[in-house]
Design brief:
The chain contains 6 helices and 30 strands. By secondary structure, it is mainly beta.
Length: 478
Amino acid sequence: MKRLVLGALLASMPATASAFCGFFVSGADAKLTNNASQVALMRKGQRTVISMSNTYQGPLEDFAMVVPVPVVLQKEMVKTLPHDVFEKIDQLSAPRLVEYWEQDPCELIQVRERFVRTSAMPPPVAMAAPASAAYGVTIEAQFKAGEYEVLILSAEEATGLERWLHENHYTIPVGASEALAPYIQGGMKFFVAKVDVKAVKKNAHGDVVLSPLRFTYEEDQLRLPVRLGLLNASGQQDLIVYVLHPTSRFEVANYKNIFIPSNLEVLDETRKDFGGFYADLFDATLASAGGAAVVTEYAWQTTSCDPCPVPPLQPSDLYTLGGDVLGEGEAGGGRRVPGQPGQPFFGPASSWTLTRLHTRYDRKSLTEDLVFVPARPVVGGRGNAGLSQEQPGAVELAAVNSFQGRYIIRHYWAGEVKCEHPTWGIWGGPPAGGQQTKAATDLANATRGAVKLADVVQSTLPQLGLPGLPEPSRPGRK
């Protein structure tokens, strides 16, 4: 029995998916679904490298994926990547929970850094198949990549491709022909990768995780075809897009852009389920937009971060995600170690801009594919004293990108006050050293609805109707 995943990655996007931007078809009537996708894009000029990792939810039988692509891909344009290639970029850009401890108000004389809480929050900046010819289906190329047997197909009409799939014993979702039509009319080709599930791994949820696939091609417009994925949607789907570009932050051109509220102070209990807390905050933020929107969660240079859940991206990370074909580190990344054929030598890392965009959608909220365009740099979620982005939710235009989703647990001083004039609000690391930083990942599977935001968010956030909580009292403070 065969399984087929019909995906939708268009025009220049590296895509990593914990499910897939597409739909499933199978050789039986079994229920196949996906609930999340991650897409990583590395783009320079008109050239794009798509890196795609998929998680399949359905019967554990041989299956395949089909991805619309703008050109006929040849063997040298496709490669498989290590399973963990996206873990670092996810953790680096994920919303992070940080902790600070209030220092003894009598021992510290100089204020090293003051984190100001405020009750006001300005709104965020808007920003080999038989009889293929009989159906108008042509096999343009055929090759093997890792555990995948790959076919590149072209089709003259959607109904012909649909009949071809049926002829090859695949059951496809209702509405597939209508969904495929715009891509066929646009001259798209179809990347079909048959998979042997005996050669793949499973994640903690029991889903099959395929080896990431990477494509390379050129295209004028940067867009992502997500509508096909709705054919298998059992409900809402999560989509996270990582865009790596030499200079620019990216946003969408055809939907509303909003920023996740950052610099929120939260109660200590948030650490118990930070992923669930953030999922509820994200859902509330998306709902406040009043319709389909894409949320910016991170925009930063790849050579730095503050605080850092994991180290910044290294030359080897950029090389793996597409730097080898985009000229990244030509003095290093593209050069080989003498005497060690096939081993790349990595020079100093270039500073690319990493943008993390996140949306959650269904059939009603998403009616067209996402189109991405460059956007001006922003700053927010830094916690720098004296700047307006200290305020919860504030985002400002800047010269260099440094925006992140940052959530703060503050441990207020509870010890004895032994001086007459204590200095309050001096924050640092834990008494034993080593500041705590935690990233919110696997958000599509986070527990939703278990936390009432108003009960754990101490900062005032009018746009979400959060009144804030009073600052804890300290001994000896009037």
